[in-house]
Amino acid sequence: MAEVAAGVIAVEQVISTGLEVGAAATVARPTQPLTAVLSQIATTPKDDTSVSVIGDKAYIFGGKKEDGQLCNNDIHAVSIGDHQGQGEYACYPAVGDEGQIPSPRTNHASCTRRDTLIIHGGQNSDDEPADDEFTLWEWEPKAARWSTITAAGKAPQSQYGHQIFYNAKKDNLVLHGGYENGHRTKATWLFDFTTRLWHELPDAPAESLAAQFVEGTLYSISAESDVHGSVHYIKPGSIQDESVDTLPEWTTVDFPSNPLVPGPRPRVGSALIPVTTGLGRRYLLYLLGSRQDASISSDKTYTEDHPFYSDMWTLQLPSDGYSATRVKDAIRDAVPGVESGAFSWHELEIAPAEMTQEAGK
């Protein structure tokens, strides 16, 4: 019995040691870079349009044609469920309650609210505001009808080139950046769908090049030069009292961008997309964009010889609270020479279309 007991203890020690080694290897394993497979779903000859996804369909609205004329106010829907480039297509003419429909526009903002599409702002063919500052448009896919949401009280000035995001937990909308009266703005506003009131939040620390809303936090990217950028973030929450003492505050994380340190170069017209690998691990995918912005880039050859970027980057966000990755990151930060990777940049690795294997980190 003693020999058997000793053998059991030895096996238990081997298993325990193996688990410890495996856990250490898992903790030490870097969370980036990520690998992605790109699949073309559809093409459309439009500029400055909006694309919003509800379920397995992407809804396209507004924008300009190749000849510079505004597109009409139809809704174009493309199925993206199969990811094989064979998505079904449908076009919905503009129909609204009491004949109210949004006018054709460009440089507007869109987001989804539950199972509906929200449109705000933009410009008409004369580069004038497409709507007054109090109007939001809501489109119901099942009924294929438009309706208006009219704000009460004060509202942000008519905007274009901005972004809007829906916070499902609070049933409110966050507006950020864009242009007012031809000038870039740092403004951030919150709209409460229940009260139909706009609430002004603190201005962002810098003008936004791209923004995204993830799990209750608004992230905004800015750049001061070719070799320096910043990530700013704020938790809008809900506004009960607009006194200065109760408003949320912005936090800034700076990052370099040069050959010695990985990071994206400043760009305009880029996309910032939230992605997750599961278990509370989230990233922002920062892709493509143009170098044509003299206020950011000092190198004139960017415009003439290399007008667009083709690279894609991932920014690791802080792990979700009470998640497996939160525990893992806390351990990483406590181990010498190992970091959680929060707010670190890595260039996205693009795999051939035949590769479909996914891995969570």
Provide structural commentary.
This protein has 361 residues and is mainly beta. It has 2 domains: 41-153, Kelch-type beta propeller (Neuraminidase, 6 Propeller), CATH 2.120.10.80; 202-355, no CATH class. 12% of the residues lie in helices and 34% in strands. The protein contains 3 helices and 24 strands. The protein has helices at residues 2-28, 301-304, 324-334, and strands at residues 35-37, 50-54, 57-61, 75-79, 89-92, 109-113, 116-120, 135-140, 145-150, 163-167, 172-176, 179-180, 183-184, 188-192, 197-201, 210-214, 217-225, 228-234, 251-256, 271-278, 281-287, 312-316, 345-347, 349-351. Strands 2-3-4-5 form a 4-stranded antiparallel beta sheet, with no helix packed on it. Strand 10 (163-167) and strand 11 (172-176) form a beta hairpin. The model is unreliable at 1-28 and 357-361 (pLDDT under 50).
